[in-house]
Structures are given as C-alpha cells and as structure tokens.
Amino acid sequence: MIALATVYLNLNDPSAAAPLIHRALRIREARYAPDHLYIGYALLLKAQVMSALGDPTGASLAHRGALILGSRLGQAHAKTEEAVALATGLLERWRHDEDQSGEPE
C-alpha cells in the first residue's frame, strides 16, 4: 500500500494516495511500536499527501515522523535531515499561507 500511495503521489494524484496511506499507517501503528521507523516513514508520506491535498495537518505529521527518525537514526542522518526539512518547509508554508490570507494564527 505504501508503494502504491507513493506512485499516486508521484503521479500528482494525492486523493488516490490518501486512503492507501491512511490504511497503511493504521496497519503499521497496530503492528509496531509508536517510535518504529516504519511508522516514521509512513507519517512522512502521509504528511506529503495531506499537504498536497491542502490539509495543514501535514506539518504536524511530518514533525512527528522527523522526531521518530531523529530518535532512531540520529540527528545527523541524511533521512532525518530530509524529514526535518520537510516538516520545517510544511510549517513555513502554512504560516505563510495564514499570513497571506489575513487569518489569525
């Protein structure tokens, strides 16, 4: 399911990817510890899907995924750095969008 969700996301079809990654994450959360790398990677993919759908919850999902990768792989690992960059970028994007829309934070 993760692979298929990734394909749909890469094909710019996040609405097709969303139910797949949602189900895959639920399965992984039922099977693995909350800080398992499989959970972290699934959270990062779900963050990308949610962001592509215009859902600001992607930033918090990416943050959680980045925390998991950081604790398991170390802060200097390339995958952790990518995850932190994703989380930071999504957070900045939503803050910028809020600033542009004139809505309070």
Give structural notes.
The chain has 5 helices and no strands. With 105 residues, it is mostly helical.
Number of strands: 0
Order of helices and strands: HHHHH
Q: For the CA atoms, what is the radius of gyration?
A: 14 Å
Low-confidence stretches: none
Average pLDDT: 94
Amino-to-carboxy terminus distance: 35 Å
Indicate the percent of residues in helices.
over 70%
How large a portion of the residues is in β-strands, by DSSP E? under 5%
Label the overall shape. globular
Let me know the largest β-sheet.
none
SSE class: mainly alpha
Number of helices: 5
Helix and strand arrangement:
Layout: H1 2-10, H2 14-31, H3 37-52, H4 57-73, H5 78-101
Keywords:
mainly alpha; 105 residues; single chain
Offer a concise description of the structure:
This protein is mainly alpha-helical and 105 residues long.
